Amino acid sequence: MDDEILRLLREPSDSFHSGEEISRRLKVSRTAVWKRVENLRASGYDIEASRRLGYRLVRAPDLLTPSEIKPLLKTKWMGKRIHHFQTIPSTNTEAYQLALRGAPEGEIVIAESQEKGRGRLGRHWVSPPFLNLYLSVILRPEIPPSQASLITLMAAVAVAEAIERFSGLHPVIKWPNDILVENRKVAGLLNEIHSETDRIHFVILGIGVNLNMEKELLPKEIRGLATSLKMETGKSVSRKEFVPCLLGALEKCYTLFLREGGKPVLDAWREKARLKGKPVKVTSFGETLLGRAVDIDAEGRLILETEKGERKRIVAGDVEYKKERQ
Ligand code: BT5
Q: I need a surface site. Which of 41, 51, 66, 230 has the fewest CB within 10 A?
């Protein structure tokens, strides 16, 4: 019903619609229309009411509801169904449950805040309300599980491209899934897979992007490590406009991956990661290795040359860039 009233108030936007017209078109009483308008006002919509002319939408808030995002969405299939929550433990957990119940590829879950936002390896993702983006996409790629990490690389490329197009910043990807601006993390990815030995049932692509996060809201431990588009550009950004930009980039990169395989993904990833030759410290399954990053291989593993000159392929772990020794 909120959706229906908003759609009506937006056609054409800026003009008045009489209470009588709205109640006739939505087949509800005028009191019901008034109540819905009051509800919308309580959620941040600026709606002018005139006895003579009716209602007019003056300004819509920057919410990530389907009624705010859908009019801006230009994708063919991604995000056509949006499950929106004010708050939720984790959008990934919700999307996983939806996928288990058969939700199709392209459905997304968005929350204005997360109570238990998750990073990799049981880590926490700071998710305060109404500032950032917390989104999970359900994908059902027909690829073997061995190629699943290419989906992570593909998503990192799409997120970096969207941030660049939207803000003019130049993000860098840090293996495997961090998006950095000026060496600080602006976005992270958590991909969870449900599969059998040779078939993926679905992938939940979890994306957290710091959009309007303020420095003071970051816990002390990560204040020096994290950033947001607002912190970098000095300007607030429209969250609801960022979502279509991100979903557009994601649909494009994913379609290309399915059509042409890993090569274009790996090429784009390498260009945005500028990894080759960087001195790194890698932590993987409790082991710490120092050396130089050589490249990533066709399955997205990090190739590392250790200080002892050995070549290692890292499947999962964390990378820290070290200062070049003089
Ligand atoms: C990640 O993990 O970077 C994956 C983050 C994925 C978050 C999204 S939000 C939507 C979806 N639903 C979820 O529940 N999760 C996904 P990892 O590489 O493990 O990094 C986690 C580390 O990043 C933490 O231990 C902190 O040091 C740091 N961190 C936590 N919150 C942050 C934030 N908002 N911005 C930048 N860094 C943060």
A: 51
What are the CA-CA distances from residue 248 to residues 65, 72, 159 (Å)?
A: 17, 11, 10
Ligand 1: distance of its center to the CA of 124 in Å? Answer: 6
Q: How far is the CA of 70 from the centre of ligand 1 (A)?
A: 26
Question: What is the distance in A from the centroid of ligand 1 to the CA of 92?
Answer: 12
Maximum CA pair distance of the chain? 82
pLDDT tens per residue, the chain (326 residues)? 588 899 899 887 678 999 999 999 999 999 999 999 999 999 999 999 999 999 999 999 999 999 999 999 999 999 999 999 999 999 999 999 999 999 999 999 999 999 999 999 899 999 999 999 999 999 999 999 989 989 999 999 999 999 999 999 999 999 988 999 999 999 999 999 999 988 999 999 999 999 999 999 899 999 999 999 999 999 999 999 999 999 999 999 999 999 999 999 999 999 999 999 999 999 998 899 999 999 999 999 999 999 889 999 999 899 998 877 65
Residues 192, 223 contacting (CB under 8 angstroms):
no
Contact at 8 Å (CB) between 302 and 289?
Answer: no
Count CB neighbours of 43 within 10 A. 12
Decide: 54 and 16 in contact? Cβ < 8 Å: yes
pTM of the model: 0.94
Q: Does ligand 1 have an atom closer than 6 angstroms to the CB of 90?
A: yes
Question: From the CA of 196, how far away is ligand 1's center (Å)?
Answer: 27
Q: In whole angstroms, give the CA distance from residue 151 to residue 147.
A: 7
Q: Say if ligand 1 is within 6 A of residue 210 CB.
A: yes
